[in-house]
Amino acid sequence: QVQLVESGGGLVQAGGTLRLSCAASGLTFSSYAMGWFRQAPGKEREFVAAISRSGDLTYYADSVKGRFTISRDNAKNTVALQMNSLKPEDTAVYYCAAAIAARYIVPIGPKEYRYWGQGTQVTVSS
């Protein structure tokens, strides 16, 4: 049974930092590209960042580029999202997701992802 469990969300002031983590089990982690998505109330789920199977390639939404960093540790089956310079508009539930992908592919569409975590709330106050 595949499980993706996010942690690290919380309440932070604008300009602050948070680090989200996602622990994966029940899958061959190094065979999956990993992504982070977010969904704010009343909005559709949107892509945030993704990383290739080996970690060689990353891709970011324009709204977070330069502020967020995605990384992975294939030895520990974890993926992280370091979020700096947080803004109130970053407030959302953040989801970790796993996608079967070729080595140098970084999927960005939610339909490309097979497995999803339960989400963790990030709230940025102004």
Can you characterise this structure?
- The protein has 126 residues and is mainly beta.
- 0% of the residues lie in helices and 50% in strands.
- The chain is built from no helices and 11 strands.
- The strands form 2 sheets. Strands 2, 4, 5, 6, 9, 10 and 11 form a 7-stranded mixed sheet that branches. Strands 1-3-8-7 form a 4-stranded antiparallel sheet, with no helix packed on it.
- A hairpin with a 6-residue loop joins strand 4 (32-39) and strand 5.
- The radius of gyration is 13 Å and the shape is globular.
- The chain starts with a strand and ends with a strand.
- The mean pLDDT is 97.
**Could you give a short account of the major beta sheet?**
7 strands, mixed
Report the structural category.
mainly beta
Mean pLDDT figure? 97
The helical percent reads: under 10%
Which value, in Å, is the CA radius of gyration?
13 Å
How far is the first residue's CA from the last residue's CA? 40 Å
Count of alpha and pi helical runs: 0
Order of helices and strands: EEEEEEEEEEE
Proportion of β residues?
over 45%
Based on Cα principal axes, name the global outline: globular
Features:
126 residues; mainly beta; 0% helix; 50% strand
List the helices and strands and how they pair.
Layout: E1 3-7, E2 10-13, E3 18-25, E4 32-39, E5 46-51, E6 58-60, E7 68-73, E8 78-83, E9 92-100, E10 115-116, E11 120-125
Parallel strand pairs: 2-11
Antiparallel strand pairs: 1-3, 3-8, 4-5, 4-9, 5-6, 7-8, 9-10, 9-11
